[in-house]
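User: I'm new to structure prediction. If I give you an amino acid sequence, what do you actually give back? Let's try with this one:
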Amino acid sequence: MHYHDPHSKNGTITTKVVCAVCFLAFSFAWLYWFQADVLAVAQHVLSGGVTRYDRTWGAVIITMALLLLQLGVFALTRLSRRTHALTYLPSMLLLAVLSDVDADISSRSTFGHWLWLAPLILLLWGGAVWLAKQMFPFDSDDKVPTGLFSRRVWLNLLQMALMMLFVALAANSNAVFHFRAHAETALMRGDVDEALRVGSRSHESDETLTMLRAYALARKGELGERLFEYPVVGTSENLLPSASPLQILSPDSIWRFLGARPAFPMPARRYYYCLEHDSLASPAVRDYVLCSHLIDRDLNAFVSALQHYDGSNDSIKKEVLPRYYREALDLYEHLRSNPERSVSDYERSMGTYYWYYYYSTR
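Assistant: Good question. You get back a string of structure tokens that encode the predicted 3D arrangement of the chain. For your 362 residues, that looks like this:
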């Protein structure tokens, strides 16, 4: 006669609950905090801009869909005991595929290598499932601890941890791509401060991220005061979306902010001149012109433009100028009076315009 063992049932439920909680917490946190901006870019590009990704609903819906997939896998395999966590592998694999978004998704396929890697992983997983089922008779519930801190639970948690590590390793961890995606989504929400915060302590950047930061700073009226606090990549041309393509933020956001969209491609300086000549330039164009000369290390053009906007050298009140305009003027005067002297005699602190002028990558 066979008797029902309540300890066996409780142990099975404990294992399932622990694995489910572990998966739900990881999947939601991963999608909500780490992958939301990247998925927003992917959905925008793949849908042609028709649909928009929502951070909260996206995390909830994808997590629930992956949990339903796990329930279906469990119904087919009936894996329990020490190998119940293996029923989550297809869900984790799909999460890994969703997380591996190429930084250049707009110009090339992002999931190509998964066409052969995913079937291979599923084939190996199928072999592991078959082996686990063969071991069931040797994994009796009799006299096996089944509590929350039992060996069985910890073995399942170890498998879950390995699958989480796999997702993390498979995901696109390019820092600049994540900074860029987050900055674009923040600017779409109108959150300029968040766009400036992301990646602010990193020395990694690219032309598009520099453009996004310049745009955000200009919206706050702080372009000349804070631009070189961040690593600046590219030339003056890269301050405009014609040279630094965006992935989710509309280029018209920047064009409208400056005054008008150019009717045809033209150099940045020509574009600023046309805006001013046609009286279409917004107040931000002045800072864009001055900072463009600073980025190109053209101090003569910078001083000439500053005189155009603020009058002759004698009438320019240096003390009221933004920080980097003051530093550029000081450097200009320093070079004219001491052309042979190194900047190390004057200033070599990271984050100053002097450092950018002499020591940043040219």
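You can read the tokens as a compact description of the fold. Here is one thing that stands out. Residues 12 and 120 are 30 Å apart (CA to CA).
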